[in-house]
TrEMBL record:
<keyword id="KW-0690">Ribosome biogenesis</keyword>
<dbReference type="GO" id="GO:0006412">
    <property type="term" value="P:translation"/>
</dbReference>
<dbReference type="GO" id="GO:0000028">
    <property type="term" value="P:ribosomal small subunit assembly"/>
</dbReference>
<feature type="domain" description="Ribosome maturation factor RimP N-terminal">
    <location>
        <begin position="10"/>
        <end position="83"/>
    </location>
</feature>
<comment type="similarity">
    <text>Belongs to the RimP family.</text>
</comment>
<dbReference type="InterPro" id="IPR028989">
    <property type="entry name" value="RimP_N"/>
</dbReference>
<dbReference type="Pfam" id="PF17384">
    <property type="entry name" value="DUF150_C"/>
</dbReference>
<dbReference type="InterPro" id="IPR035956">
    <property type="entry name" value="RimP_N_sf"/>
</dbReference>
<keyword id="KW-0963">Cytoplasm</keyword>
<dbReference type="InterPro" id="IPR036847">
    <property type="entry name" value="RimP_C_sf"/>
</dbReference>
<comment type="function">
    <text>Required for maturation of 30S ribosomal subunits.</text>
</comment>
<dbReference type="InterPro" id="IPR003728">
    <property type="entry name" value="Ribosome_maturation_RimP"/>
</dbReference>
<feature type="domain" description="Ribosome maturation factor RimP C-terminal">
    <location>
        <begin position="87"/>
        <end position="149"/>
    </location>
</feature>
<dbReference type="InterPro" id="IPR028998">
    <property type="entry name" value="RimP_C"/>
</dbReference>
<dbReference type="GO" id="GO:0005829">
    <property type="term" value="C:cytosol"/>
</dbReference>
<dbReference type="Pfam" id="PF02576">
    <property type="entry name" value="RimP_N"/>
</dbReference>
<protein>
    <recommendedName>
        <fullName>Ribosome maturation factor RimP</fullName>
    </recommendedName>
</protein>
Length: 172
């Protein structure tokens, strides 16, 4: 198991106790100052700056006790945002029909970068419609998968004329 997964297991119950969901963890080890980035979400409303501050405060206290990172580190807490990254295949189904961008570790059918509409998720198998054709790969083959937001569509929504997309998971 990698360090990001260890951190996720450590912080998940603390974040849940605050009424939030741990969306994912990114860990970037560095010689002088490692980076721990926590993405939090809330299914019923937008994530606020106060949510991020609460999680940061609680997780910092937990890290002081558990000491999961060797040396100095920076802790960042944010919402996944409109272009949210996905950390597990189980997060994908609710985004069926959305356009996703994927970067693969190694080429599949001669392609490493793919953009297409999410057709289906069957366990760990992801199928995108790419140029009108199904393109399937295993979630583990992806280095990164993100939503590609349709900003024009978001800004055209009623009440969005101020330029704020305001989708669930956004912070202001």
């Amino acid at each position: 198991m990698d360090k990001a997964q260890d951190i996720a297991r450590l912080v998940e119950s603390t974040i849940s106790a605050l009424g939030l969901e741990l969306w994912g963890v990114e860990y970037a080890p560095r010689a002088n100052n490692s980076l721990v980035r926590l993405y939090i979400d809330h299914a019923g409303r937008e994530v606020t700056v106060d949510d991020c501050e609460s999680v940061s405060r609680e997780v910092s206290a937990l890290f002081d006790v558990e000491d999961p990172i060797n040396g100095h580190y920076t802790l960042e807490v944010s919402s996944p945002g409109l272009d949210r990254p996905f950390f597990k295949a189980a997060q994908l189904p609710r985004y069926a029909g959305e356009t996703l961008e994927a970067s693969l570790h190694a080429p599949v059918n001669g392609r490493r970068r793919i953009q297409g509409r999410l057709e289906s998720v069957d366990g760990e198998r992801v199928t995108l419609a790419v140029d009108g054709q199904p393109f399937s790969f295993d979630f583990a083959q992806a280095a990164k998968i993100r939503v590609k937001p349709d900003y024009a569509k978001l800004l055209a929504q009623p009440g969005r004329a101020n330029g704020k997309a305001g989708a669930p998971g956004d912070t202001e």
